[in-house]
Amino acid sequence: MAGLSLGDVMHVRASQGRTPAPETSVIFIWLAGGPPHLDMYDMKPNAPEEYRGQFRPIRTNVPGIDVCELMPLHARCADKYALIRSISHTFSDHGGGSKRVMTGRIPATPTETVNDAPAVCTVVSRMREHIDIGLPNVISGADGGRTNVDTYAQGAAYLGRRYTPFMVGGDPSRPDFRVQNIGLDQEMATRLDDRYRLLDGVDELRRRMDNNRPMATMDALYQRAYSLMTSAEARLAFDLSREPAPVRERYGRHAWGQRALMARRLVESGCSFVTMVMENPHIPGTFYNWDTHAVNHDNFNDMRLRLPRYDQAVTALVEDLHARGLTEKVMLVVTGEFGRSPRISRSEGPQGLRLGREHWPQSMSVLVAGGGMRHGQIVGSTNALGTHPHDRLLTPNDLWATVYRHLGIDHHDTLPDQTGRPMHILPFGEAIRELT
Known about the structure:
Layout: E1 25-30, H1 49-52, E2 57-59, E3 66-68, H2 72-76, E4 82-87, H3 94-103, H4 120-127, E5 138-142, E6 166-169, H5 186-198, H6 202-209, H7 213-230, H8 232-238, H9 245-251, H10 255-268, E7 273-277, H11 299-323, E8 330-335, E9 339-340, E10 345-349, E11 352-356, E12 359-360, E13 364-370, E14 377-379, E15 381-382, E16 389-391, H12 396-407, E17 414-416, E18 422-424
Parallel strand pairs: 1-7, 1-8, 4-14, 5-6, 5-7
Antiparallel strand pairs: 2-3, 4-13, 8-13, 9-12, 10-11, 15-16, 17-18
Helix pairs in contact: 10-11
């Protein structure tokens, strides 16, 4: 950003007008690695020991809805969210599963995370590119070093790089956290003004190149960069210090909690689609993500440490959306790329016996809230062992059709691929009727 070529963004200041913020938005919490549905939202206490695991369900404030005993805050606010227990797909690799869920399409390859179809967030970016609120329409937050758009299959594929999310890396709970490329110091502001005067002559070249497609793509990237460098709206939206201390404590003074709080601030500021990754809880004794194979880590030891932090962050966000009157405007979706195997795996090693759960796309649980949906309910069910949907078989596409409906995007519409061929936003899937 410090080396931004202002000859490519001279005309931006002439188009600094803002458009009204959208009426709807989405917060998407990504549980990278695959959370264990049998240890969280779809427990099977009557199943054999090799399936049910070590935890027990507890009742919630909604009769008939139980959750894991390690999530007591979920139990207190079950009337404020809904659980979908019957989403299923067939891609058991992290890469294939991530692409399957993130894009709503059958990926061309079962591995790797470089998309051959655009991620849903990039489709939203494309459909709302006319909206200018002073910060990006699509934002994604993750740990530092994990902010490449391909890490979690958030690439735009044939839509082009201009529609990829603005990536925010680092731990927002740290005192030294800052969003890179937001704002200007006085020295840089002076240099910008000087270079504007010096580079007037570049405008003629600029006009000649306006019809060049690669240059047009780079122009959009530079416009976004310049807007972020000078936008007061962006600085305010990302500034967690403006939140009262009790609110920050309620979310939790850790990366997951403060990312959830940042997501709420961003959608309140008008951002259309905010993805926040809850992958590494940064707690000694936990694995770096939710991928708790027995050969990686002991699933149950990991969940004892991980789930209380998750419980705090997610329920704070759910309750905050309700308390601030945002449940019509904002839809919250919490999921990973798949569930984990109902049958428990075992591994003997130098550290002794470890119990784990393997990849399992055949059944997974998803938490949703807001979006004008009906809360306090369960949609679908799995069989007695939690291996497959028992009723109301759904796919990630049905979830995304529900999201698109909330955003006012017709998922039957088409967008052109790189050859100009019209591609449906979703090739199949329908909004989940029980949630309306």
